[in-house]
Design goal:
Blueprint: H1 8-33, E1 36-41, H2 51-65, E2 69-74, H3 81-92, E3 97-100, H4 106-115, E4 120-124, E5 133-138, H5 140-154, E6 159-164, H6 169-185, E7 190-195, H7 202-214, E8 219-223, H8 228-235, E9 239-241, E10 255-257, E11 259-261, H9 264-275, E12 283-286, E13 293-295, H10 304-319, E14 329-330, E15 336-338, H11 346-350, E16 359-360
Parallel strand pairs: 1-2, 1-3, 3-4, 4-5, 5-12, 6-7, 6-8, 7-16, 8-9, 9-10
Antiparallel strand pairs: 11-13, 14-15
């Protein structure tokens, strides 16, 4: 029987081969475990029970649907220089996709995107795009219109108060579509607007709602990030139309319903497209048919007849995205802004700067 003889050189060579083999396996295992990093930047706190809360639900949904995705977020980031700094920090941390979830992040997104061409930036509700920065939003006016139908059926004084954040097209469009929904079932109603000039300030929101209730409104609608306006309505024995998420638990005796956001499926679709290399910059504006926007659950006080009325109109909007802003539509002065047989285009809706007839209040310049 032949005996195998090992020289010192042979042993060293054998050990080296083992190390090389092991070395080739370890990086592959690490690569398999490497997470695809996605970040979110929020203007409010995740506990606001409204706008930011809804986006954060979408973030959590994303992580559950794509296990290889690791998400992070930075909350309560002011719009402006602070947001530019945070966006850059998130890009430096290796995030491949960054979702900026407030209108005021628009210019900072463009600046930072230019510095990080290999990162995809998605800006919510804005209108500026670049090669690696797109925009996304939902046709909020559809949910607003449907909630207006409910409000029109439940006001007795024919005066509805509207607590509004900033005089930007997004908010103006919401006020107009809500008012058109109200007037579709109750043409006598007026919608009175008070501006807070803040997205997240529970105290200011509540005080604005109180001022409207003291002025005679018996129902409060809102474009704010917290349930404070709804709580003011309940304290006064009035009804409310909430926004962003289901706010019934915060004011169960007041909240009739309200438009709600479902960002999760869109976040999943977008991140998957980046991961598989099919993402392209553009402007996304999905409606009821996409599921990104809808009317939320109803309060116990809403009748079946009103629910059926809304359901019927919802079916119309599912098939006709331009229905809400179909003419004839007059502005506050009585001037025809949309002629009979005409409709506002997407570009006109996204830049709207006038109130429809029936709205009381001014749009600050």
């Amino acid at each position: 029987m032949r005996k195998m003889k090992w020289s010192l050189t042979s042993v060293c060579l054998f050990l080296a081969l083992i190390v090389l083999a092991a070395g080739s396996v370890i990086p592959q295992a690490a690569a398999a475990e490497e997470k695809f990093k996605v970040a979110f930047i929020y203007v409010g706190a995740v506990g606001d029970a409204g706008w930011t809360y809804a986006h954060d639900l979408g973030r959590k949904f994303l992580e559950k649907q794509i296990p290889n995705v690791e998400t992070s977020y930075v909350e309560s980031v002011p719009e402006g220089a602070d947001s530019e700094r945070v966006l850059a920090e998130l890009a430096e941390k290796g995030n491949k996709v960054i979702f900026a979830t407030s209108f005021g992040y628009m210019d900072p997104v463009q600046k930072v995107a230019a510095r990080y061409p290999n990162v995809v930036f998605m800006h919510c509700s804005g209108f500026k795009t670049s090669k690696n920065a797109g925009t996304y939003f939902g046709r909020d006016y559809q949910g607003r219109y449907l909630s207006g139908i409910v409000a029109g059926k439940y006001t007795k004084k024919n005066l509805i108060g509207y607590v509004a954040a900033y005089p930007i097209p997004e908010v103006i469009r919401g006020i107009n579509s809500f008012t058109l929904g109200v007037q579709s079932v109750n043409p006598k109603v007026k919608v009175k607007v008070v501006w807070t000039n803040t997205w997240y300030d529970p105290t200011a929101e509540k005080e604005a709602a109180k001022s409207l209730l003291n002025a005679g409104a018996d129902l409060i609608a809102m474009h704010q990030d917290t349930p404070a306006a709804m709580q003011a309505a309940q304290e006064k024995g009035a009804y409310g139309i909430s926004y962003d998420s289901d706010m019934r638990s915060f004011a169960p005796k007041a909240v009739l319903t309200g438009p709600v956001w479902n960002w999760g499926p869109y976040y999943v679709k977008t991140v998957k497209s980046v991961m598989d290399g099919t993402w392209k910059s553009g402007q996304y504006w999905g409606g009821l048919s996409s599921g990104i926007i809808d009317i939320g659950p109803y309060g116990s006080m809403v009748s079946e007849s009103v629910k059926k009325l809304v359901a019927a109109k919802r079916n119309v909007l599912m098939k006709d995205e331009g229905y809400v802003f179909a003419g004839p539509i007059k502005d506050q002065s009585g001037k025809i802004k949309v002629a009979k047989g005409k409709r506002l285009t997407d570009a006109e809706m996204l830049s709207i700067d006038w109130f429809v007839q029936g709205v009381e209040g001014n749009i600050p310049k």
